[in-house]
Specification:
Alpha-Beta Plaits; TIM Barrel; about 775 residues; Rhopdopsin 7-helix transmembrane proteins; Nucleotide_cyclase; single chain; alpha/beta; EAL_sf; transmembrane helix
Length: about 775
């Protein structure tokens, strides 16, 4: 036979308690028409209901799934059930233990019953919802006073007042009145807890306890109606009903388990308890015919006391409402301030405090709607990415803030400043008597050095300017200014440029070129050519410079000065540079088979953006390891501008030197700090700019510069290469002043590796360079 489950066993015990209640109800009903000669029989099953209820409470209190506050409540209820069982036994002795049955409640029974009610109240008041403030306790005390007076008045007038025989039989109505009043208070407390919430205590269990307390109290107060039948007692129903309600509540808690009680739907409600209490008392006064002056005075005192309680309760409510209104007003003020902050944050940049794109669009849309003519300038900082890469985003943010401050100070009330994102700013200028002068002021403000975190930064800007048209929208204004800005950046940056319709065609072409450039390396469209570096005076190949070329499938051969800036702008220059270096390493290894006739060095150009990349040297080291290239035959070429524009460039060059590579400084003489660089930059080779050899300045001044350069390079132990040699006369002059290395179209244009081999390597052995050579 299958064993009953735990839930089934608990349900069976609950059914047993309900059966006892039904049996006792039948016993009491039969006693109304039949005199029981053995009234003690009716009392026998009553203690069982309390014990079964206590068992159910004990089981709920041991449920480890419940929180501590809920388990503590049910442990208190277990104690209450134990007191209830003892009270029943004492009550039974009072009722049937004497020479004749009576409805008397002795002092022991009274203490035990009151102990039950006190334990229940204590359990309720220790629930989490009752860990409240002093004001909450004052309100509860006022409500408790109202309930006590009202319930006591009702029971006295409708149950006890006119039953002198019952009072004479029991000796006093005090115990019954006390128990009923305290039971009513318990019921009110249950109801209050049910509405206020009681942590994780099952709300349905609280409702059951409240209803059980009310029904039990009502039955108990009917005891005087049985004065003619002393062998009966309303306790035979009141007590089992109380026990059953406790048992049913514990069972409900066991079924609910640790499930979070469903939240009550909060809606405004007015407490009717004070008004209902006054109404009940008034009805009693108006409808009850009382001849006894003492009782009349007692009713008057009760009415006054109730009125005082109600007034006190309403004063507290008014004070709470006043405090609540003050809190609401404060919260409304905070909400308004928060809405103002939200509105500001929605239209302003969090980093700089300047306007953002939303404010720009809102402002320009309003100007366009009004038919106003205005100008939009779009500013983008030059080489801002290098600042982030070299010094970190923290310094980059500081530079953005400093840029915003300078622009705002220069603009004043002339226009609206908005940061669109990154290092891009837009300026809306509604009216300017001299717009070019204002733009120059903005440029000058940005060109001033900025001292940030110990670094001195000079960061100019490229600016694109456009004028509004009647059919414009904010997006079109920004597009035109953006096109003009990139045109300014493409011509070297640090300048401003008006938008010209022809720029759209150029911008479209540049966009297509950028798109093609992203896939050109994958599609094997790049190749290297090599320009010889020769020794003077014989013209033997001492080295080569590897140069990148792009054979576009549709455009044909794209010049480096066209695609290199695009590669830097779209961020693929690092990938291209790594490919060039790897190809140079492989070509150097291929030429090693020529032995002594092979070029001593292959030089590879490195851009400023590559030097600014923290991972650049690691990439070079990985390529050297992969290709196994001889670092003694490799030369890294950097320009003065590349070294000056990257604070980490010197450190990067020293790291390259530790790999065994040599360093050449290209275009020497055109930078701002050429001589000072020789003190900090680990230079092995100087390549004298072609402008001093064959350019416009190659006259007397250029000749003097060329002569002086070879003088101090010899003293420093640095090799010098003269670039841009186009004639035999220039080569002879360079040799006469001390140059032993040269490069230029006179000796050979950039050529394919096969052509270089045919011209320079498939020849008799070449003259070896001195240690100071390339």
């Amino acid at each position: 036979m299958p064993q009953p489950t735990s839930a089934g066993r608990e349900r069976g015990l609950l059914l047993a308690t309900a059966t006892i209640v039904a049996v006792n109800a039948a016993w009491l009903g039969a006693g109304l028409v039949h005199v029981w000669t053995h009234p003690w029989v009716g009392w026998l099953p009553v203690p069982v209901t309390a014990l079964l209820a206590g068992r159910a409470c004990w089981t709920a209190g041991r449920n480890v799934d419940l929180d501590e506050g809920t388990r503590r409540f049910w442990r208190h209820m277990t104690v209450a059930c134990g007191l209830l069982a003892l009270g029943i036994v004492a009550n039974a002795v009072d009722a049937v233990g004497g020479p004749a049955p009576s409805q008397q409640i002795g002092p022991v029974s009274l203490v035990l019953y009151l102990g039950v009610l006190a334990m229940v109240l204590w359990a309720l008041l220790r629930l989490p919802s009752w860990q409240r403030s002093r004001g909450d306790w004052i309100r509860f005390g006022a409500d408790a006073g109202i309930v006590l007076l009202t319930v006591g008045t009702l029971i006295w007038n409708f149950s006890l007042r006119d039953h002198e025989r019952w009072v004479a039989q029991t000796g006093t109505a005090g115990p019954m009145l006390t128990i009923s009043v305290v039971a009513g208070l318990s019921m009110a407390t249950f109801v209050k807890v049910a509405f206020a919430g009681a942590g994780r205590l099952d709300r349905r269990a609280v409702y059951i306890l409240a209803i059980g307390s009310a029904v039990s109290s009502a039955w108990g107060s009917l005891s005087p109606l049985l004065i003619d039948r002393p062998y009966l007692s309303t306790s035979l129903i009141a007590v089992p009903v109380a026990a059953f309600s406790i048992h049913l509540a514990a069972f409900s808690q066991q079924r609910a388990g640790a499930r979070e009680p469903r939240p009550r739907r909060t809606r405004p409600r007015i407490s009717l308890v004070p008004y209902l209490a006054i109404a009940v008392t008034d009805i009693v006064l108006l409808t009850t015919d009382i001849d006894d002056p003492v009782q009349v005075r007692a009713m008057e005192i009760i009415a006054v006391a109730l009125t005082a309680f109600v007034v006190f309760r309403q004063v507290i409510a008014l004070r709470d409402n006043q405090r609540l209104l003050g809190t609401v007003d404060g919260q409304l003020n905070q909400l308004r301030a928060y809405q103002v902050r939200l509105a500001h944050q929605a239209t302003h940049d969090s980093l700089t405090g300047a306007g953002n794109r939303a404010l720009f669009e809102q402002h320009t849309s309003g100007l366009l709607a009004d038919g106003e003519t205005f100008h939009v300038a779009l500013l983008d900082l030059d080489d801002f990415k290098a600042v982030n890469d070299r010094l970190g985003h923290h310094v980059g943010d500081m530079l953005i803030q400093e840029t915003s401050r300078r622009l705002a100070d220069t603009l004043g009330t002339t226009g609206l400043l908005a940061r669109l994102g990154g290092d891009e700013f837009a300026v809306v200028i509604e009216s300017a008597d001299d717009l070019p002068a204002l733009l120059e002021q903005l440029m000058a403000a940005l060109e001033q050095p900025a001292e940030l975190e110990g670094a001195t930064l000079r960061c100019g800007a490229s600016v694109g300017v456009t004028t509004s048209r009647p059919d414009d929208d904010p997006a079109e204004l920004l597009r035109r200014a953006d096109v003009a800005m990139y045109a300014a950046k493409g011509t070297g940056g640090n300048r401003w440029q008006w938008f010209d319709p022809a720029m759209d065609l150029a911008a479209d072409d540049s966009a297509r070129l950028a798109a093609d450039l992203r896939t050109a390396l994958r599609d094997d469209q790049f190749f290297l050519v090599f320009q010889p570096i020769v020794s003077l005076p014989g013209g033997e190949a001492a080295g080569v410079e590897a140069l990148l070329r792009w054979q576009h499938p549709a455009r044909g051969l794209v010049p480096p000065d066209v695609f290199i800036p695009v590669a830097e702008r779209i961020g693929v220059i690092g990938e291209l540079g790594a490919w060039v270096f790897a190809q140079a390493c492989r070509q150097n290894a291929a030429w090693a088979r020529y032995g002594a006739t092979a070029p001593t060095r292959i030089s590879v150009n490195v851009s400023a953006r590559q030097l600014a990349d923290p991972g650049f040297v690691d990439t070079v080291a990985a390529i050297l390891q992969e290709t196994g290239a001889d670092t003694r035959r490799l030369l890294i070429e950097v320009t003065e501008t590349a070294v000056l524009n990257a604070d980490t460039a010197i450190e990067q060059l020293h790291r390259l030197k530790t790999l065994g590579l040599r360093v050449a400084l290209d275009d020497f003489g055109t930078g701002h700090s050429s001589l000072s660089l020789l003190l900090t930059c680990p230079v092995d080779v100087l390549k004298v700019d072609k402008s001093f050899v064959s350019g416009d300045t190659a006259g007397r001044a250029g000749a003097i510069i060329v002569k002086n350069i070879i003088g101090f390079t010899t003293d420093f132990g640095i090799a010098a290469v003269a670039e841009g040699v186009e004639t035999a006369e220039q080569a002879e002059h360079l040799h006469s002043v001390g140059y032993r290395l040269a490069q230029g179209y006179h000796f050979g244009r950039p050529m394919a590796a096969e052509a270089f081999e045919d011209r320079y390597l498939n020849t008799p052995a070449l003259v070896q360079l001195s240690p100071a050579g390339l």
